[in-house]
Amino acid sequence: MAQAHPEFPTLTVSRHPAILHKLALLRDEATEPKKFRELVREISWLLGYEALADARVSAIRVRTPLEEIEGSELADRIGLIPILRAGLGMVDAMLELMPTAQVWHLGLFRDERTLRPVEYYNKLPDRATVDLCLILDPMLATGGSASAAIEVLKDWGASRIKLINLIAAPEGVRTVASAHPDVAIHCAALDRQLNERGYIMPGLGDAGDRQFGTGRG
Q1: Active-site residue 54, yes or no?
Q2: Which of the following is catalytic: 110, 129, 131, 174?
Q3: Following DSSP, what letter does each residue of 68-85 receive, concatenated?
Q4: Active-site residue, selected from the candidate residues 63, 64, 114, 126
Q5: Residues 6 or more apart whose Cβ sits within 8 Å of residue 217
Q6: Is 209 a catalytic residue?
Q7: pTM over 0.85, yes/no
Q8: Catalytic (active site) residue 155
Q9: Is there a catalytic annotation at residue 27?
């Protein structure tokens, strides 16, 4: 149900009917924070399922009540890297898919004047402890924060990195694809453009504010 984008070879946009249905509800300005968080979790699970289709497995022997057969177990050590704070809403769904995954947090915020990312939290250990890193962030807007996170993970020693977003803007995809052509991007929708404030249009507003009920006057 996922399709590679013709303009961006590293981008895969899901066409799963369940994702399309849930995404429309997620965008709706009338959707309250509790329901919004539920939808973020549900869409994240579906996107993660598609993004992990090429995760490596190794053969094992399993005994059923009737006989022994060959089975598989996950060979890749998976690392989940939520970008604080909006990416936190995607973690639980990914842990349901991969319960043994490690979770490492990165704190990045976008300077509203320059639209450049600023790192304020990083608790990664000295060297990479995983084989495949999944960066979790609901919105890929300018691509600055995503590119910065990828640089941090590459410096850490990560060799395989994927970016999972709910909604992406062409500008952000272009930035990441240009700087990191080895990083696959999975999203539920590629929207039209950014506005002058760096928000995705039509988008869904501020994903962090909508998850946590903040930003209301």
Answers
A1: no
A2: 110
A3: EEEEEEE-SPEEEEEEET
A4: 114
A5: none
A6: yes
A7: yes
A8: no
A9: no
